[in-house]
Automatic annotation (TrEMBL):
Name this protein carries in UniProt: Capsule polysaccharide biosynthesis protein
One Pfam family, short name: 4HBT_2
Keyword ATP-binding included in the entry's annotation: no
Keyword Lipoprotein: no
Family, per entry: Belongs to the lcsJ thioesterase family.
InterPro entries assigned to the protein according to its UniProt record, in alphabetical order: HotDog_dom_sf, THEM6_lcsJ_thioesterase
Segments crossing the lipid bilayer: 59-81
Domain of life (superkingdom): Eukaryota
Keywords tagged on the record: Membrane, Transmembrane, Transmembrane helix
Length: 350
């Protein structure tokens, strides 16, 4: 889920392969350890805790426990753990307004993630974003991802030239990430990542993530919990911004082979898009985001209780006003001149 657009993850293959490989590796490691002690777990534990070199082993365990996020392969386990969880235990049907609802992921900063100021290093935010986005996409859009993964059979996306199912495996690529930092995060400070769909165009799905102080902001309800929603108060509104630590925007592209899949295919087959009249969600000419003149007043739409395509389009346009500025930064690469006017030098280590 965090690969570049040119290095796509084939989830339908990787998830089951990773699950089997991890299970077999764990089983083999456990078997090897117990075999050395004739299967006596108690004897192995006593030797581990009291035998020669115990101080070094216990200190190492202590270090690993308090810096778990920074250990080798833990990032991989976090990402594939999220994929496997939402693949093996897919969500129940959601109300359509949930398309713009938040997915909340908890985490905390380990000592190895801090910089020389003993604050969470800016670079480590991006690893957390990978995990938060994976939970959001695999949970919210999991049914659509699963459906598009069987496109050859279900013929959801067809070739405009041949009319046949578009070939290739489904992949999800990360195109870009922007992050704005407001406050620092101290070592071992817990925090939450609130991720939701911001908007989309004919190519990109834009996702917004807020890093928030843990426990300080409470949603009025959780979709599918069955519990009545509490009232959103003036105090809730007043305290929102002071608990935001950082905000990031990311964009994903969905691919079948080399063909770019319109994000609305994923949303429709996740049962999150109301039917849109006229040319639908992929009409509107080259922009392919629906006929723009069919919603004259994007702010004057019906209340969320009467959710229609107008609510969705109004929210998409509101998010796109911000996402379009982020997308404009794609042209920044054009400013690279290869040092034709000179360069400062070559330095290391890097």
């Amino acid at each position: 889920m965090a690969s570049s657009a040119k290095h796509l993850t084939n989830m339908s293959v990787v998830v089951p392969v990773f699950s089997i490989a991890a299970a077999l590796s764990a089983a083999y490691a456990g078997h090897s350890v117990l075999a050395r002690h004739n299967g006596d777990v108690q004897a192995w534990l006593i030797r581990f805790l009291t035998g020669p070199g115990r101080t070094s082993r216990l200190l190492l365990l202590f270090f690993m426990a308090f810096n778990f996020k920074s250990l080798p392969f833990v990032w991989t386990a976090r990402i594939f753990g999220a994929m496997i969880r939402h693949t093996l235990w897919p969500r129940k049907p959601l109300p359509q307004p949930a398309l713009f609802h938040y997915s909340i992921t908890h985490s905390r900063t380990s000592l190895m993630e801090t910089d020389y100021n003993f604050h969470k290093s800016n670079s480590t935010y991006f690893a957390d974003l990978d995990t938060s986005r994976t939970h959001l996409v695999m949970y919210l859009l999991g049914p659509g991802v699963a459906a598009l993964g069987q496109n050859a059979k279900k013929k959801i996306v067809v070739s405009p030239e041949t009319g046949k199912a578009m070939p290739g495996s489904l992949g999800v690529g990360l195109g870009a990430v922007f992050c704005s930092f407001r406050k620092e995060i101290s070592p071992y400070q817990p925090y939450e990542m609130w991720s939701r769909v911001l908007s989309w165009d004919r190519k990109w799905l834009y996702i917004m993530t807020h890093f928030v102080v843990k426990g300080k902001v409470k949603p009025v309800s959780f979709d599918g919990s069955g519990k009545p929603a509490r009232e959103w108060t003036a105090a809730d509104e007043a305290n929102l911004q002071k608990h935001v630590i950082a905000t990031a925007i990311s964009k994903y592209v969905f691919k079948l082979g080399r063909f770019t899949v319109h994000p609305t295919f994923i949303m429709e087959h996740s049962d999150l898009l109301p039917e849109r009249p006229g040319e639908g969600w992929r009409g509107g000419g080259v922009e392919a985001v629906g006929t723009m003149s069919d919603l004259d007043d994007a702010e004057n739409v019906s209340a969320p209780e009467a959710w229609t395509w107008k609510n969705v389009e109004s929210e998409r346009r509101r998010g796109m006003a911000l996402a379009s500025q982020f997308a404009a930064l794609d042209d920044a690469g054009d400013l690279f001149n290869g040092g034709k006017n000179g360069a400062l030098g070559i330095f290391g280590p890097g």
